[in-house]
Amino acid sequence: MPAVINRDECVSCGTCVEECPEEALTMDDEEIAVVNVDKCNDCGACIEACPSEAITVE
């Protein structure tokens, strides 16, 4: 299952985007992280990197 971003918890820091080895995350127009589910391989790097714990895998 790909990562899921809690938009209410995301602090727009971009750390997850920088840490994703698959380049599966981007920032949207509101500077909230977005997951490209076709690229996400469930490695968990974004979860570990997120300072606000806004990312989970469901």
TrEMBL record:
The keyword Transport applies. It comes from the Archaea. Pfam families: Fer4_10 (PF13237). The keyword Transport applies. Residues 1-30, 31-58 form the 4Fe-4S ferredoxin-type domain. Its cofactor is [4Fe-4S] cluster. Keywords: 4Fe-4S, Electron transport, Iron, Iron-sulfur, Metal-binding, Transport. Transmembrane segments: none annotated. SUPFAM superfamilies: 4Fe-4S ferredoxins. Ferredoxins are iron-sulfur proteins that transfer electrons in a wide variety of metabolic reactions. This is Ferredoxin.
